[in-house]
Amino acid sequence: MTPPPSIAVDFIEEETRRYVRSYRSASLCAGVTWHGEWHVQTYRKQGNAPAYEAVFGLGGLTQVFTGALLALLVDKGQARLDMTLGEVIPRALLPDADAGRITLEQLATHTAGMPHLPPNLDAPESRPEDPFGHYSAQRFGDFLRGYHPTSPPPRPFSESLLGMGVLGHALSRRAGVNYGHALRDWLFKPLKMSDTSTRVTEELAPRLLPGHTARGRPVTPWTFPALPGAGALHSTVLDQLRFLDACLGREDAGLARALAMTWVPRAEVGKVRMGLGWSLSQVRGHTVAWCSSVMGGYVGFIGLAPTAATGVVLLADHGWSLFAALRGRVPLEGPGFALLSRLIAQPPE
Predict the structure, then answer these.
(1) DSSP string of 274-296?
(2) Three-state helix/strand/coil letters over 92-118
(3) Is the peptide bond before 331 cis (omega within 30 degrees of 0)?
(4) Domain holding 244: CATH number?
(5) Are the C-beta atoms of 345 and 284 separated by less than 8 Å?
(6) Which of 88, 110, 134, 297 has a CA 20 to 30 Å removed from the CA of 10?
(7) pLDDT of 247-288, one tens digit each?
């Protein structure tokens, strides 16, 4: 890790300053990988700044790793992008013909037409503080058996947390192990991402920063027993930099080849295109793959510009404010894009 002073560190401080001021009790970890060098800063306006090894809930950033797992399975010949759910899930569990025609690629690009949330999510035992914690394998199976698309796929882009959960389930079937173990064995172990997991282990628990509301009130951890591919991962800024370096081709060539598949444009959403778990935008003439999340008391942003050898990760332990929500803003998207833009334009030191 390159120590400050550095222009990259200056950029991090300048572009994250507004967030730290707006959420005064929030902890923020910011990391940049830039032409082969790492720069990491941590902040907290009130109290001690978090350690580099602090653990955060990734929430919606999990979908990037679900897309990566799909690419790894395809690269190893254990799946195809056009493989249908009917080829993966038993007919007894997915009897509708149109549902069976949904492909893994459509799920990964949110063009499968699935609803955003499971229609049978509400239940007497549900708890608002952990909205997916009660959603069991049995309830998930009930959804699949009763799912009847209104029209055949593909459909126009519509973000679906449920669809990413279904994709994670399908991939675990192809891998022959559960979702978390598949990612551990195929991606996290090779990249030495020992602090990334679908569950908070005894080793990770002391370093986990609890999520909070925008006003600083603690949020009960969200769990995803039946839909881990939608939001179950926890990680650190250092592990996310290891992942970004792998995406940028600085690790195993086989992994780099598979991960490059994830940011190939596959669907159009206005000015944004969709890869496998990534959104794709143009910044200063470079394609930027990115993902942001507000979920379970955490916010996050991860992005990379492969042709500029640059990646950014921002993780914080506070949800957004009502004002930001009403304006449709994800708090760390602005700083994330600003950092990428400045680093893309800056020649390496």
Answers:
(1) E-SS-EEEEETTEEEEEEEEEET
(2) CCCCCHHHHCCEHHHHHCCCCCCCCCC
(3) no
(4) 3.40.710.10
(5) yes
(6) 297
(7) 999 988 889 999 999 999 999 988 899 999 999 999 999 999
Tally the domains of the chain. Answer: 1
* Domain region containing 337: 7-345
Which amino acid is present at 61? L
Dihedral sign, CA of 260, 262, 263, 266? positive
Phi, psi at 281, each rounded to 5°: -135, 165
The pair of three-digit structure tokens given for residue 108, joined into one six-digit string: 């990964």
Residue 16 lies in a domain: yes
pLDDT single digits (tens) 17-55: 988 888 878 899 999 999 999 999 999 988 899 999 999
Q: How far is CA 321 from CA 20, 58, 131, 139, in A?
A: 13, 18, 19, 32
Query: Backbone phi, then psi, for 192, in 5-degree steps?
Result: 60, 35
